Prior knowledge:
Blueprint: E1 24-26, E2 33-35, H1 54-65, H2 75-87
Antiparallel strand pairs: 1-2
Helix pairs in contact: 1-2
Amino acid sequence: MTPMPRANDTGISAHPAAAPPSAPVACERCGSAFACGMNDTVPCWCTALPALPREQLTQAMRQTDGQVYAGCLCPPCLSAVVAAAARG
């Protein structure tokens, strides 16, 4: 069984699955704190963004940043990646 990620010194979880609803998490791309709604009872803010295939998002991350992020991104970072993926 894989242990759940723990919050770092700042109290910000590195992965939303380890955080209680609306707890601040750190953006994997820029490090800023933001509220991830993954564990909330209402849909997360990210569900309002265009749904794109994972391969398309992965390719956009590699092209813009040279890496692929495993965790959540903040609204500005995810919006930028989605926009880059939509442009192709």
